[in-house]
Amino acid sequence: MKILMINVVCGIRSTGRICTDIAKGLEQQGHEVKIAYGREHVPAEFQRFAVKIGSSFDVKLHGLKARLLDGMGLGSKKATEDFVAWVKEYDPDVIHLHNIHGYYINYPVLFDYLKDCGKKIIWTMHDCWSFTGHCMYFNYENCEKYKSGCGNCPQNGVYPKRIGPDKSARNYSLKKLYFTGIPNLTIVTPSYWLEGLVKQSYMAEYPVTTIHNGVVLDTFKPTESNILSRLGISDKKVILGVAAVWDRRKGMADFIELADMLDDSYRVVLVGLSKEHIASLPANIIGIERTDSVKELVELYSAAYVFVNATYEDNYPTTNLEAIACGTPVITYDTGGSPESAGFYGMTLKEKSAKAIYDALGKISEVEPVSDYMEKISNDRAINEYLKVIVNGE
Q: How many domains does the chain have?
């Protein structure tokens, strides 16, 4: 079979690595796989899968349209028309969508093709963007407009940011028009939490199945290193936080408040920060810029006393699994699907506060992992479940 995946990135960050992991599994079974992507670099080992959609200039123009006109997914028209022409020539048996937001593809053009192409279509949803008029998540604002129609969006200051007029009502109607009525489409969600939301949205017409993400246990495993010595904190208990983007929903303010409560036996280490964030941190927080070095992440996960995921909005955080695979317990808020992954080895906090995290630190050493947890978080398990859906339609 020929399988085409579509995602904003290829081989980097969580969704990009999920795509290449699935691609390698399919390839090992003798299938041909391509991953169409829109942004950033592709590691050399995954170049054989990669097909670029548009250009960096297209992404910038699309981003400008989103910022000024609330037009996420409505730019990149010519780039998407060219891509659809390539898809028709490539003629895949299965089209597997992942993140189609990110300023790189025009969804009306893409879905006009998908509705009539006669292909088997799978859509793995990594967030809620597909059934809202603007945002990826709405928990922070306790908003439920996605059930009946958006408008006056309270989250215009977060991705996808806008400074122009609010078009969330229009966007909701357009998405509902294009994303419904597609023959032979199956939705996959990484968490039961997101599956439940899909079933309450206008996409409830489609079959939905949950496949929890996994991690590569040959890569993410307890690993000895001198990384704490290199950071000058070899005598500290490290409270680790990792995020691709640190914004309000990732709990940055809670980490800063927590750091002020800790005695000198602890040190907070945050990965994925900008230079500006790092410069503004208090002395007892060590900031590290975003890294695509899996080796460095494994060393940090393994050396940490605890991984804290103070997220206010999330789906099924892979970072929880990565920490657990490296032998480190997780403390997370009761947010989205985060408890589903942290539940293998960690604690879930109903109260979302620095004080709640501080109190949990004194109990985390008593927590034991669930039985067979490594098998349950294994990427091999996740890939096998995906292969059943993609190849056999199970």
A: 2
Residue 151: what residue type? Answer: G
Across the chain, what does the average pLDDT equal?
94
Cβ within 8 Å of residue 249, ≥6 positions away: 137, 140, 158, 311, 312, 313, 314
Distance CA 373, CA 376 (A): 5
Task: Supply 93's token pair.
Answer: 């048996």
Global confidence as pTM: 0.91
The per-residue DSSP string of 157-184 comes to TSSS--SS---HHHHHHHHHHHHSS-TT
User: Which CATH number characterizes residue 253's domain?
Assistant: 3.40.50.2000
**Cα 55 to Cα 61: distance, rounded to the nearest angstrom:** 10
Q: For the beta carbon of residue 28, count every other beta carbon within 10 angstroms.
A: 10
Strand partners, 123: 97, 187
Query: Nearest-CA neighbor of 345 among 386, 314, 307, 292?
Result: 307
Quickly tell me which residue has 């991953």 as its tokens: 35
What is the CB-side half-sphere exposure of residue 70 using CA atoms within 13 A?
Answer: 22
Contact 390, 122 (CB under 8 A): yes
Structure tokens at 160: 């996808």
CA distance 172 to 43: 35
Q: Give the Cα separation of 136 and 197 in Å (integer).
A: 12
Q: Which among 48, 99, 92, 55 is positioned nearest to 73, based on CA atoms?
A: 99
What percent of the chain is helix, strand and coil (3-state, nearest 5)? 40, 15, 45
Q: Which two tokens stand for residue 309?
A: 């995921």
Tens of pLDDT, residues 301-353: 999 999 999 999 999 998 999 999 999 999 999 999 999 999 999 999 999 99
Q: What is the pLDDT of residues 134-163, one digit of tens each?
A: 999 998 888 999 999 999 999 888 888 899
Residues 192 and 243 occupy one common structural domain: no
Same structural domain, 34 and 147:
yes
- Residues 167 and 244 placed together within one structural domain of the fold: no
* Domain extent at residue 347: 227-376
The tokens describing 73, both together, are 């997914």
Q: Are residues 192 and 265 in the same domain?
A: no
Question: What are the tens digits of pLDDT across the range 78-131?
Answer: 999 999 999 999 999 999 999 999 999 999 999 999 999 999 999 999 999 999
